[in-house]
Amino acid sequence: KLRYLALKESDIDDANVTDPEIEAYYKDHSNEYEVKERRRARHILLKISEDADEDSIEKIQKKAKTIRDQIENGEDFADLAKENSEDVGSAKNGGELGFFSRGMIEKPFEEAVFSMKEGEVSKPVLTRFGWHIIELEEIEPGRVKPLTEVKESIDTRLKDQKIKNMIWDRANGVYDEIIQLGSFSAYAEQNEIELKTTELFSQKKPPDVIGSDPELLKTLFALNSGELSSLLHIHQGILIAEVLEKKAPYLPSLEDVKEQVKEDFAREKAKELCRLKAQKLLEASKKQGLEAAAKDKGLKIQQTGLFKRTDKTAKGKLPPAVAQVGLSLYQGKACPDEVAESGNIFYVLAFKEKKDADIAGFSAQKDAITKRILEEKQHTLFGDWLKHLRERASIKQVTKI
Q1: Domain-embedded: residue 357
Q2: Fewer CB under 10 Å: which end of the chain, C or N?
Q3: Could you tell me if 52 and 135 lie in one domain?
Q4: Statement to judge: residues 100 and 45 lie in one domain
Q5: Could you tell me which residues come within 8 angstroms of residue 97 by beta carbon, excluding any fewer than 6 positions away?
Q6: Is residue 401 part of a domain?
Q7: Within 13 A of 129's CA, how many CA atoms are on the CB side?
Q8: Any idea of the CA torsion for 165, 170, 171, 177, to the nearest 10 degrees?
Q9: Which contacts qualify for 321-328: CB closer than 8 Å, 24 or more apart?
Q10: Is pLDDT above 80 for 103?
Q11: From CA 251, how far away is CA 237, in angstroms rounded?
Q12: CB 9 within 8 A of CB 164
């Protein structure tokens, strides 16, 4: 049971950012607003199999040269792409790849594209995917975004940082005053503040103000009755808490929890019966297919439709963990070994269809995706490091107030 004071970022209403501050940030971080040169191209891909010999590669190259000659003689590139390209993702769109910058595509492809002029058609270019004929459609020069374009985002960023700094400084001031006055209650009385109080709670069911952060809960539950916490990070704010009461784990009497026990038992029994029913359906599906097995039991099946690995919820039709099970299935293994489960719902899955990835599209996005993941990891590491520094700088009171 806690008595606490939560200082929320939403309580800060005077974190104003000035134009000179925005201009200074823009000047110091101008590299963040650089937009690389981008080029828009279309291509025709003639694939080369992994076990192709030199004769096969040369034969495909000759076909690529023939197609290029057709383009040079006035035939439409887009029409030839639809007829000949083996890149299923772009062929139907006349080989269109859209805009991309350096570092986003295969090196030989990149070198060719960034050495071409608008409207030019390349000689056949060899990559690990095969031979490409490329048409450069448009060049978008690199530039630095003007301040007018990014002013609003800079203002938001600086304001957020100011709010975090202000709430941290304010919390430090409050904590210092608590120490000087000798107790949490004395601080509240001095400043005419009503401290809030929680009910007794467990780590499994914390109050909303604390949330479910395991490290925060571990810190709070390590305190003894009468102890004051250090400054603790909560969602968009800082928490200062004092332990009013702490009870050791105990087993309540059956009379006190009789109704709860009944509800829990009924819920678990129903869940077990549902799991058993789903398991039987899965076993039948392995033998005769899900559609036939479901029909025999008078059940209606649902379909997700095609979805990508990056779509964690199968277009909103499955929980993330269940969607991952679905992605592990293939033609030779149409059903999973076990029933998929999420919460109190059981899923019987079966493989239906798989479509090959858009090779050129992936090649164009691969490096950008890698860069984004790396930036996210770096941001997380920096946040953890900053949190560590703040925790080391905060005051810890270990004696009873």
Answers
A1: no
A2: N
A3: yes
A4: yes
A5: 40, 41, 42, 43, 90, 360, 361, 364
A6: no
A7: 25
A8: 150
A9: 322/347, 322/349, 325/349, 326/351
A10: yes
A11: 35
A12: yes
Residues 319, 283 share a domain = yes
* CATH code of residue 41: 3.10.50.40
Rounded to whole angstroms, how far apart are CA atoms 236 and 135?
A: 50
Q: What would the pLDDT profile of 278-326 be if each residue is shown by its tens digit? A: 899 999 988 888 888 888 888 888 888 888 877 777 777 888 888 888 8
Dihedral, CA atoms, 230, 233, 234, 238, nearest 10 degrees? 70
Instruction: Give 143-197 pLDDT, tens digit per residue.
Output: 999 999 999 999 999 999 999 999 999 999 999 999 999 999 999 999 999 999 9
DSSP state of 196: E
Q: Are residues 60 and 112 in the same domain?
A: yes
Same domain, 129 and 46: yes
- Do the domain assignments include residue 26? no
SS3 at position 98: strand
Closest CA relative to residue 285, chosen from 343, 345, 329: 329
**115 and 80 assigned to the same domain:** yes
| Same structural domain, 234 and 291 | no
Instruction: Please report whether residue 364 resides in a domain.
Output: no
State which residues form the domain around 292: 254-347
CB atoms within 10 A of CB 355: 9
Alpha helices (runs of H) in 244-328, residue ranges in sequence order = 254-288, 290-296, 320-327
The answer to pTM > 0.90 is no
